Amino acid sequence: MLKISKEVRTGILAIIALVIVIGGYNYLKGQNLLDKNRNFYALYDNVEGLTPGANVTINGLTVGKVISIKFADKTGKLKVHFDVVSDFEFSNKSIAKVYGIGFISGKNLAIVPSYDGPLAKDGDILPSEIDNGIMELVTERLEPLQAVIESAINDTDSLVKSVNTVLDKNTQKDLKDAIANFSAISRELKTTSQSVNGLLAENKEKLNGTISNFEEISTNFVKLSDSLSQVDIGALVSNFENLAADFEGIANNLKSGQGTAGKLLQDDQVYVNLERTTKQMELLLEDMRLNPKRYVHFSLFGKKPKEYNPPKDSLR
Protein backbone atom coordinates (compact mmCIF):
# COMPACT_ATOMS: atom_id res chain seq x y z
CA MET A 1 0.00 0.00 0.00
CA LEU A 2 1.32 3.35 -1.06
CA LYS A 3 2.05 5.56 1.81
CA ILE A 4 1.39 9.28 1.46
CA SER A 5 3.69 11.48 3.31
CA LYS A 6 2.49 14.14 5.66
CA GLU A 7 3.73 16.84 3.31
CA VAL A 8 1.63 15.56 0.41
CA ARG A 9 -1.45 15.22 2.54
CA THR A 10 -0.92 18.69 3.88
CA GLY A 11 -0.59 20.03 0.32
CA ILE A 12 -3.76 18.24 -0.82
CA LEU A 13 -5.70 19.58 2.14
CA ALA A 14 -4.38 23.06 1.45
CA ILE A 15 -5.49 22.87 -2.19
CA ILE A 16 -8.93 21.61 -1.18
CA ALA A 17 -9.23 24.37 1.41
CA LEU A 18 -8.17 26.97 -1.18
CA VAL A 19 -10.76 25.70 -3.65
CA ILE A 20 -13.42 25.82 -0.95
CA VAL A 21 -12.43 29.34 0.05
CA ILE A 22 -12.39 30.59 -3.55
CA GLY A 23 -15.67 28.87 -4.34
CA GLY A 24 -17.32 30.18 -1.18
CA TYR A 25 -16.06 33.68 -1.85
CA ASN A 26 -17.39 33.62 -5.39
CA TYR A 27 -20.65 32.13 -4.15
CA LEU A 28 -21.02 34.93 -1.66
CA LYS A 29 -20.33 37.38 -4.51
CA GLY A 30 -23.05 35.72 -6.57
CA GLN A 31 -20.73 33.86 -8.91
CA ASN A 32 -21.01 30.20 -9.64
CA LEU A 33 -17.80 28.76 -11.04
CA LEU A 34 -19.67 25.83 -12.54
CA ASP A 35 -22.09 27.92 -14.53
CA LYS A 36 -21.39 29.23 -18.00
CA ASN A 37 -21.86 32.97 -17.61
CA ARG A 38 -21.33 36.12 -19.66
CA ASN A 39 -19.83 39.27 -18.21
CA PHE A 40 -21.09 42.76 -19.01
CA TYR A 41 -20.36 46.27 -17.86
CA ALA A 42 -22.23 49.57 -17.49
CA LEU A 43 -21.09 53.09 -16.57
CA TYR A 44 -23.00 55.33 -14.13
CA ASP A 45 -22.61 58.77 -12.63
CA ASN A 46 -24.35 57.50 -9.48
CA VAL A 47 -25.34 53.92 -8.66
CA GLU A 48 -27.95 55.07 -6.08
CA GLY A 49 -26.83 52.53 -3.45
CA LEU A 50 -26.34 49.52 -5.73
CA THR A 51 -23.98 47.01 -4.10
CA PRO A 52 -22.06 43.92 -5.28
CA GLY A 53 -24.15 40.78 -4.95
CA ALA A 54 -27.34 42.55 -6.04
CA ASN A 55 -29.57 40.59 -8.39
CA VAL A 56 -29.53 41.10 -12.14
CA THR A 57 -32.96 40.53 -13.66
CA ILE A 58 -34.57 40.31 -17.07
CA ASN A 59 -38.33 40.89 -17.06
CA GLY A 60 -38.34 40.22 -13.31
CA LEU A 61 -36.41 36.91 -13.54
CA THR A 62 -33.05 36.76 -11.75
CA VAL A 63 -30.39 35.85 -14.32
CA GLY A 64 -27.19 36.97 -12.60
CA LYS A 65 -25.42 39.01 -9.93
CA VAL A 66 -23.55 42.28 -9.67
CA ILE A 67 -19.88 41.27 -9.31
CA SER A 68 -18.12 44.54 -8.59
CA ILE A 69 -18.45 48.32 -8.65
CA LYS A 70 -15.34 50.40 -9.23
CA PHE A 71 -14.38 53.89 -10.34
CA ALA A 72 -13.88 53.89 -14.08
CA ASP A 73 -11.72 57.02 -14.31
CA LYS A 74 -10.78 60.24 -12.58
CA THR A 75 -14.12 61.87 -13.49
CA GLY A 76 -15.87 59.82 -10.83
CA LYS A 77 -17.87 57.59 -13.15
CA LEU A 78 -18.62 54.15 -11.72
CA LYS A 79 -18.12 50.93 -13.66
CA VAL A 80 -20.48 48.15 -12.69
CA HIS A 81 -19.41 44.60 -13.54
CA PHE A 82 -22.21 42.02 -13.65
CA ASP A 83 -22.77 38.61 -15.17
CA VAL A 84 -25.67 36.87 -16.85
CA VAL A 85 -25.93 33.12 -16.39
CA SER A 86 -28.90 32.62 -18.68
CA ASP A 87 -28.37 31.92 -22.35
CA PHE A 88 -31.16 34.40 -23.16
CA GLU A 89 -29.97 36.52 -26.08
CA PHE A 90 -30.38 40.31 -26.37
CA SER A 91 -28.69 43.05 -28.36
CA ASN A 92 -25.92 45.36 -27.22
CA LYS A 93 -28.48 48.20 -27.24
CA SER A 94 -30.20 46.69 -24.20
CA ILE A 95 -30.23 49.00 -21.17
CA ALA A 96 -28.78 48.15 -17.76
CA LYS A 97 -31.16 50.00 -15.43
CA VAL A 98 -30.63 50.45 -11.67
CA TYR A 99 -33.97 50.31 -9.86
CA GLY A 100 -35.28 50.21 -6.31
CA ILE A 101 -37.40 47.36 -4.98
CA GLY A 102 -38.87 49.07 -1.90
CA PHE A 103 -38.38 51.58 0.90
CA ILE A 104 -36.15 49.31 2.98
CA SER A 105 -34.66 46.96 0.38
CA GLY A 106 -31.69 48.04 -1.69
CA LYS A 107 -31.20 48.38 -5.42
CA ASN A 108 -31.10 45.78 -8.15
CA LEU A 109 -29.97 45.85 -11.75
CA ALA A 110 -32.45 45.13 -14.51
CA ILE A 111 -31.59 44.49 -18.14
CA VAL A 112 -34.23 46.03 -20.39
CA PRO A 113 -33.77 43.82 -23.45
CA SER A 114 -33.62 45.21 -26.94
CA TYR A 115 -33.53 43.07 -30.06
CA ASP A 116 -32.34 45.66 -32.56
CA GLY A 117 -28.73 45.55 -33.63
CA PRO A 118 -25.93 43.05 -32.93
CA LEU A 119 -26.24 40.57 -30.09
CA ALA A 120 -24.51 41.45 -26.82
CA LYS A 121 -21.24 39.57 -26.34
CA ASP A 122 -19.18 38.76 -23.29
CA GLY A 123 -17.35 41.91 -22.14
CA ASP A 124 -19.68 44.45 -23.84
CA ILE A 125 -20.52 47.74 -22.13
CA LEU A 126 -24.28 48.24 -22.15
CA PRO A 127 -26.10 51.59 -22.04
CA SER A 128 -27.02 52.58 -18.49
CA GLU A 129 -29.99 54.22 -16.85
CA ILE A 130 -31.25 55.05 -13.34
CA ASP A 131 -34.90 54.35 -12.61
CA ASN A 132 -36.79 56.65 -10.26
CA GLY A 133 -37.53 54.65 -7.15
CA ILE A 134 -40.48 55.01 -4.84
CA MET A 135 -38.75 57.68 -2.79
CA GLU A 136 -37.85 59.61 -5.92
CA LEU A 137 -41.45 59.38 -7.17
CA VAL A 138 -42.77 60.52 -3.79
CA THR A 139 -40.28 63.39 -3.75
CA GLU A 140 -41.24 64.33 -7.29
CA ARG A 141 -44.93 64.36 -6.37
CA LEU A 142 -44.30 66.29 -3.15
CA GLU A 143 -42.24 69.05 -4.74
CA PRO A 144 -45.28 70.94 -6.17
CA LEU A 145 -47.10 70.45 -2.87
CA GLN A 146 -44.08 71.72 -0.98
CA ALA A 147 -44.03 74.83 -3.17
CA VAL A 148 -47.72 75.42 -2.47
CA ILE A 149 -47.23 74.93 1.27
CA GLU A 150 -44.26 77.30 1.32
CA SER A 151 -46.28 79.89 -0.59
CA ALA A 152 -49.19 79.49 1.83
CA ILE A 153 -46.83 79.88 4.79
CA ASN A 154 -45.36 83.03 3.28
CA ASP A 155 -48.84 84.43 2.62
CA THR A 156 -49.91 83.59 6.17
CA ASP A 157 -46.82 85.24 7.57
CA SER A 158 -47.51 88.36 5.50
CA LEU A 159 -51.14 88.35 6.63
CA VAL A 160 -50.15 88.05 10.29
CA LYS A 161 -47.70 90.92 9.91
CA SER A 162 -50.38 93.03 8.20
CA VAL A 163 -52.91 92.22 10.93
CA ASN A 164 -50.40 93.10 13.63
CA THR A 165 -49.72 96.37 11.85
CA VAL A 166 -53.41 97.24 11.46
CA LEU A 167 -54.55 96.08 14.89
CA ASP A 168 -53.08 98.85 17.01
CA LYS A 169 -54.51 99.75 20.42
CA ASN A 170 -57.22 102.03 19.01
CA THR A 171 -58.32 99.40 16.49
CA GLN A 172 -58.42 96.72 19.18
CA LYS A 173 -60.59 98.99 21.33
CA ASP A 174 -62.93 99.62 18.37
CA LEU A 175 -63.18 95.87 17.76
CA LYS A 176 -64.02 95.24 21.41
CA ASP A 177 -66.71 97.94 21.29
CA ALA A 178 -68.10 96.47 18.06
CA ILE A 179 -68.25 93.00 19.61
CA ALA A 180 -69.98 94.41 22.69
CA ASN A 181 -72.52 96.23 20.49
CA PHE A 182 -73.10 93.05 18.52
CA SER A 183 -73.76 91.16 21.76
CA ALA A 184 -76.26 93.84 22.83
CA ILE A 185 -78.01 93.66 19.45
CA SER A 186 -78.16 89.87 19.75
CA ARG A 187 -79.82 90.17 23.17
CA GLU A 188 -82.33 92.69 21.82
CA LEU A 189 -83.09 90.43 18.88
CA LYS A 190 -83.66 87.54 21.28
CA THR A 191 -86.05 89.66 23.36
CA THR A 192 -87.88 90.83 20.23
CA SER A 193 -88.13 87.25 19.00
CA GLN A 194 -89.65 86.16 22.31
CA SER A 195 -92.15 89.05 22.15
CA VAL A 196 -93.13 88.14 18.60
CA ASN A 197 -93.56 84.50 19.58
CA GLY A 198 -95.80 85.53 22.49
CA LEU A 199 -97.84 87.82 20.23
CA LEU A 200 -98.28 85.04 17.69
CA ALA A 201 -99.36 82.64 20.44
CA GLU A 202 -101.95 85.13 21.78
CA ASN A 203 -103.40 85.81 18.32
CA LYS A 204 -103.16 82.28 17.02
CA GLU A 205 -106.95 81.92 16.62
CA LYS A 206 -107.23 85.26 14.80
CA LEU A 207 -104.37 84.33 12.52
CA ASN A 208 -105.98 80.98 11.80
CA GLY A 209 -109.24 82.79 10.99
CA THR A 210 -107.41 85.21 8.72
CA ILE A 211 -105.69 82.36 6.95
CA SER A 212 -109.06 80.62 6.53
CA ASN A 213 -110.51 83.82 5.04
CA PHE A 214 -107.58 84.05 2.65
CA GLU A 215 -108.16 80.45 1.64
CA GLU A 216 -111.88 81.18 1.06
CA ILE A 217 -111.01 84.29 -0.97
CA SER A 218 -108.54 82.24 -2.97
CA THR A 219 -111.20 79.60 -3.61
CA ASN A 220 -113.70 82.25 -4.74
CA PHE A 221 -111.07 83.80 -6.97
CA VAL A 222 -110.45 80.41 -8.55
CA LYS A 223 -114.19 79.99 -9.13
CA LEU A 224 -114.37 83.49 -10.62
CA SER A 225 -111.44 82.65 -12.88
CA ASP A 226 -113.22 79.47 -13.98
CA SER A 227 -116.41 81.46 -14.68
CA LEU A 228 -114.50 84.06 -16.67
CA SER A 229 -112.77 81.33 -18.62
CA GLN A 230 -116.20 79.99 -19.66
CA VAL A 231 -117.43 83.38 -20.94
CA ASP A 232 -117.64 83.70 -24.72
CA ILE A 233 -115.14 86.50 -25.11
CA GLY A 234 -115.69 86.63 -28.87
CA ALA A 235 -119.43 87.22 -28.53
CA LEU A 236 -118.85 89.79 -25.79
CA VAL A 237 -116.40 91.69 -27.97
CA SER A 238 -118.78 91.49 -30.93
CA ASN A 239 -121.66 92.93 -28.84
CA PHE A 240 -119.42 95.68 -27.59
CA GLU A 241 -118.40 96.51 -31.17
CA ASN A 242 -122.08 96.62 -32.24
CA LEU A 243 -122.91 98.89 -29.31
CA ALA A 244 -120.03 101.17 -30.23
CA ALA A 245 -121.24 101.25 -33.84
CA ASP A 246 -124.77 102.21 -32.67
CA PHE A 247 -123.39 105.03 -30.55
CA GLU A 248 -121.28 106.16 -33.46
CA GLY A 249 -124.40 106.20 -35.71
CA ILE A 250 -126.34 108.23 -33.14
CA ALA A 251 -123.47 110.68 -32.87
CA ASN A 252 -123.29 111.01 -36.65
CA ASN A 253 -127.07 111.61 -36.84
CA LEU A 254 -126.86 114.27 -34.16
CA LYS A 255 -123.93 115.86 -35.93
CA SER A 256 -125.66 115.83 -39.33
CA GLY A 257 -128.95 117.15 -37.93
CA GLN A 258 -131.05 114.07 -38.67
CA GLY A 259 -134.04 113.30 -36.44
CA THR A 260 -135.64 115.47 -33.80
CA ALA A 261 -132.61 115.50 -31.54
CA GLY A 262 -130.32 116.28 -34.47
CA LYS A 263 -132.50 119.14 -35.63
CA LEU A 264 -132.72 120.43 -32.08
CA LEU A 265 -128.92 120.54 -31.94
CA GLN A 266 -128.23 121.77 -35.47
CA ASP A 267 -131.33 123.85 -36.57
CA ASP A 268 -131.32 127.34 -35.01
CA GLN A 269 -134.97 127.94 -35.92
CA VAL A 270 -136.08 124.99 -33.83
CA TYR A 271 -134.19 126.44 -30.92
CA VAL A 272 -135.79 129.87 -31.48
CA ASN A 273 -139.30 128.34 -31.66
CA LEU A 274 -138.66 126.31 -28.54
CA GLU A 275 -137.47 129.39 -26.70
CA ARG A 276 -140.50 131.38 -27.93
CA THR A 277 -142.90 128.65 -26.82
CA THR A 278 -141.27 128.57 -23.41
CA LYS A 279 -141.69 132.36 -23.13
CA GLN A 280 -145.37 132.15 -24.05
CA MET A 281 -145.92 129.46 -21.44
CA GLU A 282 -144.34 131.70 -18.84
CA LEU A 283 -146.63 134.63 -19.84
CA LEU A 284 -149.69 132.39 -19.82
CA LEU A 285 -148.96 131.14 -16.34
CA GLU A 286 -148.31 134.68 -15.15
CA ASP A 287 -151.62 135.88 -16.70
CA MET A 288 -153.53 133.02 -15.07
CA ARG A 289 -152.07 134.06 -11.75
CA LEU A 290 -152.98 137.74 -12.25
CA ASN A 291 -156.35 137.27 -13.99
CA PRO A 292 -157.81 133.99 -12.85
CA LYS A 293 -161.37 135.21 -13.57
CA ARG A 294 -160.64 135.30 -17.22
CA TYR A 295 -160.19 131.55 -17.19
CA VAL A 296 -162.72 130.63 -14.48
CA HIS A 297 -166.25 132.18 -14.96
CA PHE A 298 -168.13 131.83 -11.68
CA SER A 299 -170.34 134.42 -9.94
CA LEU A 300 -172.98 134.01 -7.26
CA PHE A 301 -174.76 137.25 -8.18
CA GLY A 302 -174.38 137.22 -11.91
CA LYS A 303 -172.02 140.18 -11.98
CA LYS A 304 -170.50 140.93 -15.32
CA PRO A 305 -166.78 140.29 -15.40
CA LYS A 306 -164.34 143.09 -16.06
CA GLU A 307 -162.97 143.58 -19.49
CA TYR A 308 -159.73 141.72 -20.05
CA ASN A 309 -156.66 143.78 -20.82
CA PRO A 310 -153.81 141.76 -22.23
CA PRO A 311 -150.40 142.32 -20.72
CA LYS A 312 -148.03 144.68 -22.40
CA ASP A 313 -145.45 141.99 -23.14
CA SER A 314 -148.01 139.74 -24.85
CA LEU A 315 -146.77 137.98 -27.91
CA ARG A 316 -149.94 138.56 -29.86
TrEMBL record:
Bilayer-crossing residues are: 12-28
Q: What superkingdom does the record give?
A: Bacteria
Q: Does the keyword Membrane apply?
A: yes
State if Transmembrane is listed as a keyword: yes
According to the entry, every stretch annotated as the Mce/MlaD domain falls at 38-113
Keywords of this protein's UniProt record, alphabetized? Answer: Membrane, Transmembrane, Transmembrane helix
Specify one Pfam family.
MlaD
InterPro entries in alphabetical order: Mce/MlaD (IPR003399), MlaD_Phospholipid_Transporter (IPR052336)
Put simply, this protein is called Phospholipid/cholesterol/gamma-HCH transport system substrate-binding protein
Q: What organism, scientifically named, is this protein from? A: Dokdonia pacifica
